[in-house]
Amino acid sequence: MTTMNDTSNAARFREFKMPDVGEGLTEAEILKWYVQPGDTVTDGQVVCEVETAKAAVELPIPYDGVVHELRFPEGTTVDVGQVIIAVDVAPGSGDAAPAPAAAPVAEPEPSEPEAPKGRQPVLVGYGVAESSTKRRARKGSAASVPAAAAAIQGEMNGHGAVVPESRPLAKPPVRKLAKDLGIDLATVVPTGEGGIITREDVHAAATPVPAQAPAPVAAEAAPASEAPAVVTTVGARETRIPVKGVRKAIAQAMVGSAFTAPHVTEFVTVDVTRTMKLVAELKEDKDMAGVRVNPLLIIAKALLVAIKRNPEVNAAWDEANQEIVQKHYVNLGIAAATPRGLIVPNIKDAHEQTLPQLAASLGELVSTAREGRTSPAAMAGGTVTITNVGVFGVDTGTPILNPGESAILAVGAIKLQPWVHKGKVKPRQVTTLALSFDHRLVDGELGSKVLADVAAILEQPKRLITWA
User: Fold this and answer.
1) Measured distance between the N- and C-terminal CA atoms of the chain, rounded to whole angstroms
2) 439 counts as catalytic
């Protein structure tokens, strides 16, 4: 029987569930809480940061009110649809607050073990694969949170929320690195401005323990049923790091791509001396003020022009319908190395952008990726990708296609080399390009034309005007 007080409480306390922030992904890890019980929040305020298999995402609360309860501590992997925070939307109304234990985050599933095996995040375009990799123990209700949280992070208050004790200052990617390496941030000496712990500080603190006493990161005081199933362990001879989140999704996607799409890779070495001169001139051009000008900008524009001249390369393979889907737009992906692994955000409708606009888009894409703020939407819908391995001093490579795309261009290091120019051997700026493509929809002739066009533009950048 529902009493008037029960109905009032139901209306007063609003529960916010873990949303599907990654296009069909089934779970996310809570990286950081920005609020604690008793804090006032407003509609649209970011309350936590979570990591899915694709990216780290900040979650805004859709209510005004006072935080009543946090259901999970930081570092917990939560299934989509589970309640993660409760908000009192009518504070001071005098109604009795519901007991934390009476508001379970999810109904227990008798037929499902507490720590299911083989359940993995689902990446769009790929099914759930069986795996022996374990995941964290399932948190069935709010009552199970305090023990695990106390073991991992410290004391809990009456609402089951983490109470930080002089929490060390560090950005989320640094906290993630410390967690993966098994480093307690409270023991790390900060060298960053304002007492912030940097990645270098964490690496400096990551000294291996003696081989006879390897130290697991997970709290040993937690009951076996509540301890994380997979932990980072550091020993004198090896370090074991759980594969999850973005890195796990990357591994699954690359395996799927490599064994689904028949890859062909072609190479060309090209004199880019004139392109390097153009880059130097553009850096002094007032129309390019405020944007970053580098060789990647000209390479990206060259690829867009090559796609315009050979539009059939900008396509996708529809396995279900056995169709080749021609794209009349180019969402240009740029592979970016981040603390969470390699991600590929893309510039939407890059084919419509002018050179200054493309430069601004590239700069924003790279800075956002480095800061760990790339959203899942920014990585969805790519058509063709560029990966710049030259920044590592590598000459070239055989890149694997981003799933769902038709081609990927690898750019090698630009080096001063002896080159025959106008009948004489001279020092010239030279690089090697590699284009991998899906041979189901891009044959050798088409792939060769695209790669040759990119090389021709980089050799004679005036073709950006004559061919555009």
Assistant:
1) 73
2) yes
